[in-house]
Amino acid sequence: MKINRRTAILAAAALAAPRLAWAAFPDRPVRVIVPWPPGALADVVMRSIAQAMAGPLGQPVVVENRPGATGALGTEAVARAAPDGHTLILGNAETHAINPLVYRRLAYDPVRDFSPVSLFARAPFALAVGQNMGVTDLAGFLSKLREAPGRVSYASWGVGSTSHLTMELLLKAAGLEALHAPFTGQAPGITAVIGGQVDCMFLTAGGAEAAARDGRVKLLAVSAAERVPLLPQVPTLREAGVAVEGGNWFGLLGPARMPAEAAEKLAQAMAEAARAPAVQEVFRAQAAVLSTNTPAEFARFIAEDRARWEAPVKALDIRID
């Protein structure tokens, strides 16, 4: 078939049009829904990196809190949003790895309904106990639990949350029981521990350090592979004789069918924002570890994390109707 010059020019223009359109992305503010309350680690680190992403993107990045159902409410809202790259979810281990395992009926599919953008933070946990427990190390804490099986209470930010599961993994490894007291977020949970209404809690290391700074709680261990720089004096659970690790991660995702060009541009902006000194300082203060990757790498990371949590969830028989 003979192709004239005009046809060739039109064909080339048609192929170039999508690239030109996405070169101008974003053309308005980008909205990131944080499906947890204001002031939590996720909210603090997202706001710091959102501000730094505005430069590379050429548009403001606006953070909106929409908490509820261990992150499921806000996550569902993004799953139903227009896939144009302007509405994103701050996902984590709960929204995209654990919720699908514990909820019998979840209003979104963590794979089918989302387009991964990039991981950007990992968050180790610390075990905090109230002063009323009168213990100074993990061995003393476990002894207390043995003396009063099922009567020591622990807080979390929800059934099936990483805080809940990390404590259950510790209890299972030690062959002990405790009473679970779920709250709507980390802040009300640790407030209850400080006030003596609940005995202990696994929470993010940065939040734990802030609560322990003036002696309101005692930190017994961190659930990381190695000691946390912000808490160099606090041993890991493994050092204390319990082979358990737990924590959380945070990353950005958009709705399914979001163009790859948009996901890649957002991931590049996040990687650039992560290099900003102000962002790195916030992460250090929160004991969060900066860790960015590509959309494809993030998709693999989420799948691997879901597989990692599957066995503990089944063993603990945690199901939510």
From TrEMBL:
Keywords: Signal. It holds the Pfam family TctC. Residues 1-23 form the signal peptide. SUPFAM superfamilies: Periplasmic binding protein-like II. InterPro entries: BUG (IPR005064), Bug_dom1 (IPR042100). Belongs to the UPF0065 (bug) family. This is Tripartite tricarboxylate transporter substrate binding protein. It comes from Rhodovarius crocodyli.
